[in-house]
Write a structure and sequence with these properties.
The complex is a heterodimer of chains A (360) and B (146). Chain A is mainly alpha-helical and 360 residues long. Chain A contains 16 helices and four strands. Helices cover 70% and strands 3% of the residues of chain A. Classes of the chains: A mainly alpha (360), B alpha+beta (146).
């Protein structure tokens, strides 16, 4: 204990940390019936950290070229000690992270946490979700297997329907007209350099905003909370409770990776047909299923382009929700927006279920 | 005097802003050109040996490379051959021949095409481009239509 004190003194003499100490002593988290939702963001952050650690480990063996990527992942899975575990944790962790991101997003949506002054926190969170989806999409191609090859083909082709610049975006993403080794190299660059760097900055903004503004109390509980404000110290009480959640998620990751190691599939072949039952990652499936129902032509316009345009507008609306939900901004109940959230969740669940169980 | 110094300041400021913009553009232009890959000349191949005679059973198909793109050769139930581009007109997936449907099928979004390449159902907006099929000795030659 003395040594710890000495070390802390050593730092304090050199850097003035009294501000940080004062902040952490003063910082509290509201306690109410729904405060457990506050832990979801921390779990997502924890999963992001596991992704960085396992990603760095995978980099030691992975080779980003069309003629060696698949073989290098095969080598990781079969020859490198605990390679199967590290890769499976990376793949399962990515999926769990996106799952918890969705849960976090919907929980803050329904608790109207985007109200003034937290609009920027919502927007930075929405950008983080988009970045996480980009991580998922770019990482999916890296093992260079058949499913990933066609998922990338379809996904990048969708960019081509953007009027005017679509073709440029497609060529930029693919590194050429088609999905080839050049696409793999690019996606590798996006996945391990561009996206992590961007995410780091957006995440920093998101976390600083949360620390500066504190947790939002849902409007339904705000009156009661103001009358009788119950709080918990952020450090160490809330952090320790959070750590229990992190530990549980780490356990879940270990179980999933050990019992269901992530499959590698067949090596990509540019001249093979798209395999039966081809699907993107589960978080894109509802969009994939939507595209199946859109006819090629709608009123002589390209149906695909219209659908993608509509999806783009939907995303823009979702990101800008704090500015549309005027009632919530005035702390009034905004049932219409709650209903929009419920309809969106039902839509996602129904279309995903149809795609997995009732679709050819 | 005051007016003069203000207009001089405005002039210098706009000069500075223009130089900064020009400098930014000068830095970004090579980056933009660098990230857009150079054009690789497309294969000008007009015909290809797709298969051997009798390689395909009646009512079956085969995907083969035609230049840098996949194409599909189909032997109908009556022995006749048909060939098309195998790139789906919807989102560029590679199609396959489905014996059970007797149709060309895209696994990605359930697009279906008949034996003339026309869309039967699903989201593809355009038919598949048909190719000529000719038999030369023991080879089946597929070529682009003139």
């Amino acid at each position: 204990m003395d040594k710890l004190k000495k070390l802390s003194n050593w730092f304090e003499v050199r850097i003035d940390l009294s501000g940080v100490k004062k902040f952490s002593d003063k910082k509290v988290v509201p306690v109410h019936q729904q405060h457990f939702w506050y832990a979801i963001g921390g779990i997502t952050l924890f999963l992001f950290i596991t992704q960085i650690v396992t990603g760095i480990l995978l980099l030691l063996y992975y080779r980003p070229a069309a003629d060696s990527a698949y073989e290098s992942v095969q080598f990781i899975m079969t020859s490198v000690r605990f390679g199967w575990l590290i890769r499976s944790i990376h793949s399962w962790g990515a999926n769990l992270m996106i799952f918890f991101l969705f849960v976090h997003m919907f929980s803050t949506f329904f608790m109207k946490a985007y109200r003034k002054p937290r609009e920027m926190t919502w927007i930075s969170g929405a950008i983080l979700l988009i970045l996480a989806l980009a991580f998922g999409f770019s990482g999916y191609l890296l093992p260079w297997n058949k499913l990933a090859f066609f998922a990338t083909k379809v996904g990048t082709e969708m960019a081509a329907v953007v009027p005017g610049v679509g073709k440029h975006i497609l060529i930029f993403l693919r590194g050429g007209e088609d999905v080839t080794g050049a696409t793999l190299t690019r996606f590798f660059g996006f996945h391990v350099a561009l996206l992590p760097m961007t995410t780091f900055f957006v995440l920093l903004i998101h976390l600083v905003l949360i620390q500066a503004q504190g947790m939002s109390v849902p409007p339904t509980l705000e009156k009661e909370y103001k009358k009788n404000p119950k709080t918990m110290k952020f450090f160490p009480d809330f952090i320790l409770r959070d750590a229990v959640g992190w530990l549980a998620v780490l356990g879940l990751l270990g179980v999933l990776a050990a019992l269901f190691p992530w499959e590698l599939g067949e090596k990509a072949d540019r001249f093979a047909s798209a395999p039966m039952g081809i699907k993107p990652e589960w978080y894109f499936v509802f969009l994939f299923q939507t595209l199946k129902y859109i006819p090629g032509r709608i009123f002589s316009l390209n149906g695909e382009a219209l659908a993608i345009f509509a999806i783009g507008l939907g995303v823009l609306f979702w990101v800008s929700v704090p500015f549309f939900d005027r009632r919530a901004q005035k702390n009034l109940p905004s049932k219409a927006f709650t209903l929009i959230g419920i309809v969106l969740i039902i839509y996602i669940i129904v279309l995903t279920t149809i795609s997995y169980f009732f679709s050819s | 005097m005051k007016e003069t110094s203000k207009s001089r300041r405005t002039f210098l400021l706009s000069g500075l802003l223009s130089s900064l913009t020009a400098f930014g553009a000068m830095m970004l232009y090579p980056v933009w050109r660098f990230i857009m890959p150079p054009k690789v000349p497309e294969s000008t191949q007009n015909s290809v040996k797709a298969a051997k005679v009798n390689e395909l059973e009646p009512n079956s198909g085969k995907v083969f490379p035609f230049g840098s793109k996949p194409a599909i050769l189909i032997r109908l139930g009556n022995g006749e051959y048909r060939a098309f581009t195998a790139v789906c007109t919807h989102l560029q997936c590679t199609v396959q021949y489905r014996k059970d449907f007797k149709l060309i099928w895209c696994a990605c979004h359930n697009g279906r095409f008949d034996m003339n390449g026309n869309v039967v159902s699903g989201p593809p907006p355009l038919p598949l481009e048909p190719f000529e099929v000719a038999i030369s000795g023991s080879d089946i030659i597929v070529s682009k239509r003139a």
